[in-house]
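Hi both,

Apologies for the delay on this - the queue was longer than expected. I finally got the 2-acetamido-2-deoxy-beta-D-glucopyranose-bound model through. Below you'll find the protein sequence and the ligand SMILES exactly as submitted, and right after that the structure tokens for the full complex including the ligand.
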Amino acid sequence: MRHVSSAFLVASLAAIATASTTCSVDNKCPESAPCCYNGVCGVGSSCLGSCDPLMSYSLDSCTPEPICKNQTYSFSNLDDSILWDQYLGNSSQYEWTTSGFPKVENGSLMLTMPNQTTGSLVTLNNYIWYGKVSAKIKSSRGGGVVTGFILMSDVKDEIDFEFVGYNLSSVQTDFYFQGVENWTNEVNAAVSPGDTFSEWHTYTIDWTPEKLEWLVDGVVMRTLTKNSTLNATSGVYMYPQTPSRLQMSLWPSGLTTAGQGTIEWGGGLVDWNSEDIVKYGYYYALYKEITVECYNPPEGTTVKGDKSYIYTSDTGLSDQILVSGNSTVLYNLKDTGLNMTAGKQTTASSSSGTSNYESSSGADATSTGFSAGSTSKNAASSSFSDRVTQGSFLAALTAVIFSLL
Ligand SMILES: *[C@@H]1O[C@H](CO)[C@@H](O)[C@H](O)[C@H]1NC(C)=O
Ligand SMILES: *[C@@H]1O[C@H](CO)[C@@H](O)[C@H](O)[C@H]1NC(C)=O
Ligand SMILES: *[C@@H]1O[C@H](CO)[C@@H](O)[C@H](O)[C@H]1NC(C)=O
Ligand SMILES: *[C@@H]1O[C@H](CO)[C@@H](O)[C@H](O)[C@H]1NC(C)=O
Ligand SMILES: *[C@@H]1O[C@H](CO)[C@@H](O)[C@H](O)[C@H]1NC(C)=O
Ligand SMILES: *[C@@H]1O[C@H](CO)[C@@H](O)[C@H](O)[C@H]1NC(C)=O
Ligand SMILES: *[C@@H]1O[C@H](CO)[C@@H](O)[C@H](O)[C@H]1NC(C)=O
Ligand SMILES: *[C@@H]1O[C@H](CO)[C@@H](O)[C@H](O)[C@H]1NC(C)=O
Ligand SMILES: *[C@@H]1O[C@H](CO)[C@@H](O)[C@H](O)[C@H]1NC(C)=O
Ligand SMILES: *[C@@H]1O[C@H](CO)[C@@H](O)[C@H](O)[C@H]1NC(C)=O
């Protein structure tokens, strides 16, 4: 099911709130706002994470992607995370970027979706270029409520586990190549004993250059071989093959403004007076014991360093990815992949005592994709760099998004 994620909703707000420049493969971004982020051109945050190199001004407009890291993640707090629109690309400093209303409960990451909101999204900042990713998950429940555990690349290769809250006895497995939709890619996997909401089950994506497996509690439920995805016309394997980030999400498919197909897929409209909303004030999903095991890059890959992945051609295929020593970190939120430290010189000569975040918080003619931040900041009328106010900032942002839906 092609769907909208929380990140997409946030970016849509940027498009709605400003007469911003949109982008696609045939309509790349201008040099002044070179980064294509969910269809909108911008700088700073737009150049990190979901920045699509194939739709941006040039392949190096998006920042290099932090390389895969073997790691087990546990949650006692969210100190390792940062709001998606404040992250500068240092994945050693912040493991996760967030939007919405995540929290920690009993040592688990809890994504929540309070009444009338679009839920939560937590993304791992290091990319995975083939590897094995696992988590114990308790999904949310209810028609129109979707829990996600997916790998997503910047050119929209995607590998999914999706829990649709009206059927707690199964999980959907799905994949995309460069965002191309094909209904036959979606396959249900039965989950037992118990159900996906009440019981912890372990969900694993095992992804190699040759084949892709979805496992539940260690049992292979589905296998996709790369060979089976050959498009004989183009000679291209329509197989997920580019560096991808782990995204965990809780979002509403059942909004009156969604397409009819999306509403039906998710099992109808969200009930905002459900048991969980009445009792807790939110829908919720739980994740724990998240492990990432990195596999080696495909044979024949050019390796020039150990820091980042870089796209070297506009095919978006795995044989055009380079492992580099290039930095992944922007100096501030006005910088782009074209000159990742341009702000350093500017800041040094024109201001003192101004933090990286603050120096980028003003509305800027070129920061079209990022002006969602400015808009919602006004709505929240709070200091952008004050961590204490981030909850209300996000609440305001989400409220604004919701009122626009
Ligand atoms: C990587 O770094 C080299 C050397 O600084 C630079 O010439 C090149 O443009 C960088 N590549 C990207 C994609 O940022
Ligand atoms: C990234 O963060 C780490 C840990 O906070 C720090 O040691 C490192 O210098 C930072 N790297 C850059 C390029 O800012
Ligand atoms: C956390 O643990 C407490 C005590 O065992 C329990 O009552 C509560 O339901 C747990 N929370 C979740 C979200 O499972
Ligand atoms: C969907 O995928 C199947 C199996 O690979 C293929 O036979 C079919 O042509 C595809 N359909 C579309 C509309 O792309
Ligand atoms: C729920 O999923 C199970 C397992 O795939 C399937 O057998 C059942 O028909 C589904 N129920 C509904 C209501 O779709
Ligand atoms: C995939 O196809 C290639 C070329 O036909 C073949 O050499 C290879 O053994 C196949 N791989 C698998 C895993 O089936
Ligand atoms: C195969 O590639 C051709 C040419 O790029 C494209 O038109 C067609 O839609 C592709 N087939 C499938 C099933 O996606
Ligand atoms: C959720 O919000 C709607 C609209 O404000 C309201 O009608 C409904 O009563 C709320 N649900 C709960 C459980 O408070
Ligand atoms: C991750 O661990 C595996 C062994 O489990 C090892 O082969 C691989 O080189 C490691 N990768 C990285 C990036 O550390
Ligand atoms: C980056 O921008 C700064 C400030 O404008 C400039 O001094 C520097 O030469 C630029 N670096 C590159 C590699 O273009």
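Main takeaway for now: Residues 17-64+326-341 form one domain.

I'll put the files on the shared drive as well.

H.
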